[in-house]
Design goal:
signal, Secreted protein, about 240 residues, 1 helix, five-stranded antiparallel β-sheet, DUF4360, eight-stranded mixed β-sheet
Length: about 240
């Protein structure tokens, strides 16, 4: 298997409405007020979030990213939200000599965006690049879920890969019904919650099979790029 000093890249593709190039807010007008996971803690501690996750998935405090584990920024043209990890903080491995807890990695982060009033955005498709080593009877799965305000399950994109395989991969995932963020109101933040999940499952009853999902051979970071599609929206009457 490859060494772990590589990165994994996930890019969510930009999609415009068929009749034009969308209505992107002026450059620099969308700002990242904060990017922090503690904002989700109150939902996890109360149990509210668990009932909102797709496919009955459960989450806990350990799934909330530490602020020191990643960096996040929005591009000047408002079209990309860049989320970067050190590869040690986003890798899944399956090996007889490692704890079973290493076979999956889930990370939740909340980006709090200051969006000009009267704008909304969506993520329509995702592209993943990385390296996957899977022995026979081992399955690797990559998924990303997102939601707005206090939700995590408004859209989910996922893909499974099956062993045997040992190669760099590129995956395109398309959302049939992408969800738009709430129409931005004056002086109110848009909370954009993202769950990134990678995992390995083995059907080998001897527990000797191996697997690995990590970055390709380009950099030493794990990067997720969310490309945003914008449109204007009508605010409710005051």
């Amino acid at each position: 298997m490859r060494p772990s000093s590589h990165f994994f890249l996930a890019a969510c593709g930009l999609s415009y409405l068929a009749y034009g190039q969308g209505n992107v807010p002026p450059p620099g007008s969308v700002t990242l007020s904060t990017a922090s996971s503690p904002g989700l803690s109150r939902y996890i501690s109360s149990g509210d979030v668990a009932s909102l996750l797709p496919d009955g998935q459960m989450i806990g405090a350990a799934d909330i990213c530490n602020d020191d584990d990643y960096s996040i920024a929005i591009s000047q043209d408002n079209r990309q939200l860049n989320w970067i990890f050190d590869t040690d903080n986003m890798m899944a491995s399956l090996d007889p000599s490692t704890p079973r807890s290493s076979d999956s990695k889930k990370c939740i982060v909340q980006a709090r965006l200051e969006v000009p009033a009267g704008y909304t955005f969506k993520v329509e498709n995702c592209r993943f690049w990385g390296y996957c080593y899977l022995e026979p009877m081992v399955t690797g799965k990559i998924s990303t879920s997102y939601g707005f305000q206090d939700r995590l399950d408004e859209s989910t994109l996922s893909k499974s890969m099956y062993g045997p395989m040992a190669e760099d991969f590129s995956l395109n995932l398309f959302e049939d019904t992408p969800k738009w963020s709430p129409c931005a109101e004056p002086d109110q933040l848009t909370f954009f919650n993202v769950v990134l999940d990678i995992g390995l499952i083995s059907k080998d009853t001897t527990f000797q099979s191996r697997g690995l999902i990590q970055g390709g051979a380009i950099d030493t970071n794990f990067t997720q790029i969310l490309a945003l599609d914008w449109e204007t929206c009508q605010l409710p009457p005051q």
